[in-house]
Design a protein that fits this description.
Oligomer: heterodimer
Strand content of chain B: over 45%
Number of helices of chain A: 0
Radius of gyration of chain B: 13 Å
Structural class of chain A: mainly beta
Distance between the termini of chain A: 36 Å
Number of strands of chain A: 13
Order of helices and strands of chain B: EEEEEEEEEEE
Distance between the termini of chain B: 39 Å
Order of helices and strands of chain A: EEEEEEEEEEEEE
Shape of chain B: globular
Structural class of chain B: mainly beta
């Protein structure tokens, strides 16, 4: 199984500042046949299901604000929030769908400093 | 709009069985694969199983292989998760999620239901 490791486990950032979450996979999730990274990011708020935020490593999901961006390739990925808003407080998970079983990172809890 | 509604959760004794349902609407159900993902209290999501759009291809996590069975009825826009030989570490909220791929393989979890809680006292 591909192991997904996020860092940090928790992060406190001031409103309006940049937040950066890292995700590393134990093997590459870049498929050479289509040059796509099989990596997604989800946001989860308390009492709610996870919500798709980023897929193909850098494509924003429907309705996701453009302050959110995903980058990276191969085994190293980043989720960046350019200017933190209060409503961004949540837990963020990366997930690979390159191979079965799909696997998630352990999550990063984002809070306001 | 896409809606996924899970049902069938509850409290079941170790060794018991439960069948979850996921009723879908807002999209052409028979064209898309569906996943089940679970989340134990205070933990991250764990993928459980996937069924292809026509039911011909299924994948399972090792932790549930041989105990859980996924199936679908495209005439009822519903996916089922039959869970047998339940144990304490199966306690979780179980979500169904729509895959965006209309082919035979899985991709990401595009839309999620609100989940149904399964509790197996240990």
């Amino acid at each position: 199984d591909i192991v997904m490791t996020q860092s940090p486990d928790s992060l406190a950032v001031s409103l309006g500042e940049r937040a950066t979450i890292s995700c590393k996979s134990s093997q590459s999730v870049l498929k050479s046949s289509n040059n796509k990274n099989y990596l997604a990011w989800y946001q989860q708020k308390p009492g709610q299901p996870p919500k798709l935020f980023i897929y193909w490593a850098s494509t924003r999901g429907f309705g996701v604000p453009d302050r959110f961006s995903g980058s990276g390739s191969g085994t190293d990925f980043t989720l960046t929030i350019s200017s933190l808003q209060a409503e961004d407080v949540a837990v963020y998970y990366c997930q690979q769908y390159y191979s079965a079983p799909p696997t998630f990172g352990q999550g990063t809890r984002l809070e306001i400093k | 709009q896409v809606q996924l509604v899970e049902s069938g959760g509850g409290v079941v004794q170790p060794g018991g069985s439960l069948r979850l349902s996921c009723a879908a609407s807002g999209f052409i159900f028979s064209n898309y694969g569906i996943h089940w993902v679970r989340q134990a209290p205070g933990k991250g999501p764990e993928w459980v199983t996937f069924i292809q759009y026509d039911g011909s291809n299924k994948y399972y996590a090792d932790s549930v292989k041989g105990r859980f069975t996924i199936s679908r009825d495209n005439s009822k826009n519903t996916v089922y998760l039959q869970m047998n030989s339940l144990r304490g570490d199966d306690t979780a909220v179980y979500y169904c999620a729509k895959d965006p791929n209309s082919g035979g393989t899985f991709e990401y979890l595009q839309y999620w239901g609100q989940g149904t809680l399964v509790t197996v006292p240990s």
